[in-house]
Amino acid sequence: MTAAVAPSGLEAPRNTSLREAWLISLGHALTHWYPATFYLLLPIIGHELGLTFSQIGLVMTCQYIAGAVANVPGGVLVDTVGRKGLLMAVSLFWVGFPYLLMSFTHSYLMLLGCVALVGVGNSLWHPTAIPTLARRYPERKGLVLSLHGMGGNAGDAIAPLVVGALLAVLTWREVVVLNVMPGLVVSLLLLAMLGTLQLGSKRKPAAVDEPSQSLADYARGLRLLFRNRSLVLLSTSGAFRSMTQNALLTFLPLFLAREMGYSPFLIGAAMFALQAAGLVASPVAGHLSDKLGRRSVMTVSMAMTAAVLLFMAVAGKSQAFVAFIAVLGFFLYAIRPVIQAWLMEVTPKNMGGSSIGILFGAQSLGASIAPLLGGLIADRWGLGATFYFLAGTIVCANLFILLMPRAEPASA
Is the dihedral of CA 169, 175, 180, 186 positive or negative? Predict the structure, then answer.
């Protein structure tokens, strides 16, 4: 299916400075900081509220269902509004603020409501940031999206270490209150540097502000977008990969806490190892995919992820299980920027927000299902059995990549 042609006025100029990429990546780090914090707090909250594994899984399911529902409308908003800096600032604030509300909850239902708000806030970030970066750096999509991915990995990696140390001296409720400040500061920084600037009496668009399009133009583009086979396959693959990632982030801390007796600090260190490996892998995979092609990098990374998960399931409670964590992070997180860059190449530029919204909506749907299924498996067969389930989901993700057309439609 040939992609729709974007209006020529939307074409971004070539950009050699990476300043905008680093700033957006910093914001991305904070959107991941908060969920990474919550994964570490979840075993403590679950113990305090007396939750089963299934109920703990349902907490994450609720967050990602909210994100799945909100991602497509978020993409519509991004593609019809030009204020990208403002949207990113609002998204970051919206992700962080519900965690402050959690400090007041003693109810399971209120906890579910707070995580649902997080899912809605997160739905605005990726449809805004990823197309913006792809358009500003058209010749280096894989590289700049890997920098964006590195920001996410940095947030995922540093948060468990910081929060694990804080939990040694503070309660989890005090931690979530302190945690609001970084997001607030970076939201203001994004708004100041990427929002619309005022120079004298003339209104000057910031570098990341792009022309909007009418709803009629958008509707025509959307009809073509839903007939794009590559979009469907990549989104489905992304959904299964997201099942793997989010069930892992939910149950790995639980396994380390309940099966191996790790303290919060040691669990934080293990999660840091997982994410630090991803931090290294992201730019490597992005650069290689620019040079060697997206398909080969994704296929190898997914196959290795499945193999490592099977090794971990077999290793059980041994120290070998812990040793595999960093290896798993390297291959699992290498995939993320590559699938995003590939999607930007096979969909129209003027529908970038909606394309990413559909991808992340599918990923949120997969992420919403996996923790609940993993919780049911853990309740029935034990926490170790969830790692066999995770290996199966990443194999399914790889099958859809193998079905991708060899001749990719060019992005307009």
Answer: positive
